[in-house]
Design goal:
The protein has about 270 residues and is mainly alpha-helical. The chain is built from ten helices and two strands.
Length: about 270
């Protein structure tokens, strides 16, 4: 698959971003999501965009992975832009033709939603690109550990989320293999109307579900054969510890928060 699918894919490295504590990266990702929703003016989007580019360069992640993280949702971006462009009410009319009307407010809203979704996908994909599934599981479990007093299954939830992330690129590779095999047998997935195309996907979906259930069964058998019983009594090869670089990363995010809030309130 190469760089076609980045969600759930991990790129090994020794950059400062890779060496951050997984708990720090998870919390920073949550803070980044909140930050993107706090942006109140279009020019302020330059700040989170510059932050994403800076993290990509610092982590030494190839830029093609940043673009490939957006490729699966490109049609969703177009759809959201069109919906907001034509169905958002406004007073300042820019273009009016037949029943369609584009206003200054609708154009601003369309660009706003598209940029927000774009930055969210690119920013959150950096978490899995720079954090291995095992380390991510440990970080999630440690963050959810205080909920154990309420009998919350922190370890099991973290394990399920990590396995799901790990299975995404594997399933996409399986889809590509099945599609190529069916096309070699004469299957056509591009011609016909929408209903015909939907029916042509059945030869892909059936083997895909069979393969997914087989992988899940093999994983369950492997975990049982290794006497896996959840997080109870489990030890770790590497304990998580916060370092100075984690405090620096938190300080950078705090400064970015302050800058976004301040510039969102200032008139340009």
């Amino acid at each position: 698959m190469g760089a076609k699918m980045t969600l759930g894919q991990f790129l090994p490295g020794d950059s400062p971003v890779h060496r951050l504590d997984p708990r720090t990266k998870i919390l920073l990702m949550v803070a980044y999501i909140v930050l993107v929703f706090l942006v109140g003016r279009l020019p302020v989007f330059l700040l989170p965009a510059a932050f994403v580019v800076g993290v990509v360069l610092l982590a030494r992640v190839p830029l093609r992975y940043l673009g490939s993280s957006v490729r699966p949702i490109r049609w969703l971006l177009v759809f959201m832009f069109i919906i907001n462009l034509f169905f958002t009410q406004g007073r300042t009319v820019l273009v009016e033709w037949w029943i369609f009307r584009i206003t200054q407010e609708s154009l601003r809203q369309a660009v706003f939603i598209t940029l927000r979704l774009l930055l969210l996908v690119m920013g959150t994909s950096l978490l899995t690109l720079t954090t291995s599934p095992i380390v991510l599981t440990d970080g999630l479990e440690r963050l959810l550990k205080p909920l154990a007093v309420f009998r919350f299954p922190a370890h099991e939830l973290a394990m399920m989320m990590t396995i799901a992330l790990r299975f995404i690129p594997l399933l996409m590779e399986e889809v590509e293999r099945i599609q190529k095999a069916q096309m070699a047998r004469g299957a056509d997935f591009t011609s016909g109307n929408l209903i015909v195309r939907a029916r042509s996907m059945i030869p892909i979906l059936v083997p895909l579900f069979v393969s997914a259930f087989r992988r899940a069964d093999e994983l369950a058998m492997a975990m049982e054969s290794r006497c896996y019983h959840g997080g109870e009594g489990r030890t770790r090869m590497r304990e998580l510890h916060l370092h100075r670089r984690d405090l620096v990363a938190a300080a950078v995010m705090a400064a970015l928060f302050a800058a976004v809030i301040l510039l969102s309130r200032v008139s340009f």
